[in-house]
Every structure is written in structure tokens, then in C-alpha cells.
Specification:
Strand content: 5-15%
Number of helices: 10
Radius of gyration: 19 Å
Length: about 220
């Protein structure tokens, strides 16, 4: 085989690997597939220290800590918005019994997903994480799936929920805010998250349809143990 032919084969192999990696990571609106079983004796649950960090955002907290639901989400993802009302209903029904944890997992192919996550993180610095998180889902149809940056829409929402706008903008552009979002996403990749929304119930990846009924069944089963 000539040198030129060998070089061509190497280039083709590299391009194929890159395309495959991009295809796997940029699946925006589907839950992650079921986890494949590991070798005998391998743990069936995600490592607790990676799943919930000391600075992870808890939307609800159960004093006994018996059951924790962790969601890796993309605020621009339509499937996440579809799951959102069910999550809110479950939070109300299991108040004081189940902890719900929010983790960021913005999909790169969503133009404003990372900025939206930064907006939630910036709002959290003023104690307004939940109003921003809820407001972004409630207005997603207005700002989602846009090819231009939707910063003005996020600033308007910040104003409407009563944030200090200069402070919000400083925090929105703070490199530490972006680092916080990317740290969540890195943890998601470590845990095998490939799409959103992805839920973990007591460390076990939820592999069913992320509906209210499906999550409720998984939570009830965890509470019954």
C-alpha cells in the first residue's frame, strides 16, 4: 500500500470517529437509553458523590433523605418542558418525602440552552433560581429553537421576577457561572447521560418514558424499600 493511500485511510478513520461522537452527543430531545449492564459485581447505581454535589441545586428537600430524584435537563429541550408539569406535580405531592435535584445538561446543538442554564444559575445568586427555572419553561415556546441569542428575553424575565438587573447581567457573564454549568454537564457525561431529560431515582437511571405516572411508580417503589 502506498504512503498516500495509508494517509487517506487514517484521515477517513478520524473523520468517521468525530462524526460518530457528534451524533451521539447531539441528541437533544430524547431521554437517555437504558444503561447497559456492567460486569458481574459492578454497582447498578450512579456514584452518589458525582450524582449530587455539595453545590447541586435542590428544588425540594426531604428531611430523612430516603429518596432523591435527580434530573439532568436542558431548558431549551421540548421533552424537558413536556416533563416539567409532571415534575412540579410530583414535588407538590411528595413535599417533605422526596428530594428533587436540578442538574444542568445543555445540549450544544441548542443555541440558547447554555445561556438559559447560566440565567438560572445567575438568578440563584439572588435567591431566585426557582422563579427563573419555572419562567424559562413557561416561556420556552417564545425563545426556544431560535437561531439568534435570546439574551433580551432572559433579561426581560429577570426583570419580571424582580431581579437586580445589573447584578444579574454581571453574574450571567461571570466565567464562574459558565464553569458551574459545564461542571454539571461534565458530571452528566460521566454518569452516561446522553440526552434530556435524564432522571435518576436513588442513583438508578430511570429508563422508562419520563411521564408523571412512570416517575411516580419509580418513586413509590423507592419509598417502599
Amino acid at each position: 500500500m502506498s504512503a498516500n493511500a495509508r494517509i487517506s485511510l487514517v484521515v477517513i478513520a478520524v473523520v468517521a470517529a468525530v462524526v460518530t461522537a457528534l451524533f451521539v452527543f447531539n441528541q437533544p430531545n430524547t431521554p437517555a437509553p437504558a444503561a447497559q449492564p456492567g460486569p458481574p459485581g459492578a454497582p447498578s447505581t450512579a456514584p452518589a458523590e458525582v450524582l449530587v454535589r455539595p453545590d447541586s441545586h435542590k428544588l425540594s428537600t426531604a428531611p430523612d433523605g430516603k429518596v432523591t430524584v435527580v434530573e439532568f435537563l436542558d431548558l431549551e429541550c421540548e421533552a424537558c418542558r413536556a416533563a416539567y408539569p409532571g415534575v412540579e406535580k410530583l414535588r407538590a405531592e411528595y413535599a417533605g418525602k422526596v428530594s428533587f435535584v436540578l442538574r444542568y445538561f445543555p445540549i450544544p446543538s441548542h443555541r440558547n440552552a447554555e445561556l438559559a442554564a447560566r440565567a438560572v444559575e445567575a438568578a440563584s445568586r439572588q435567591g431566585k433560581l426557582e422563579p427563573m427555572y419555572q419562567g424559562l419553561y413557561q416561556t420556552q415556546q417564545q425563545w426556544g429553537e431560535q437561531r439568534t441569542e435570546q439574551r433580551p428575553a432572559f433579561l426581560d424575565l429577570a426583570r419580571r421576577i424582580g431581579l437586580d438587573l445589573p447584578a444579574f447581567e454581571r453574574d450571567l457573564d461571570d466565567p464562574a457561572t459558565l464553569a458551574r454549568v459545564l461542571a454539571d454537564r461534565a458530571d452528566g457525561v460521566t454518569l452516561g447521560v446522553q440526552g434530556t431529560p435524564t432522571f435518576f431515582v436513588n442513583g438508578a437511571k430511570f429508563t422508562g418514558r419520563p411521564s408523571y405516572e412512570g416517575l411516580k411508580s419509580a418513586i413509590d417503589a423507592a419509598l417502599a424499600k
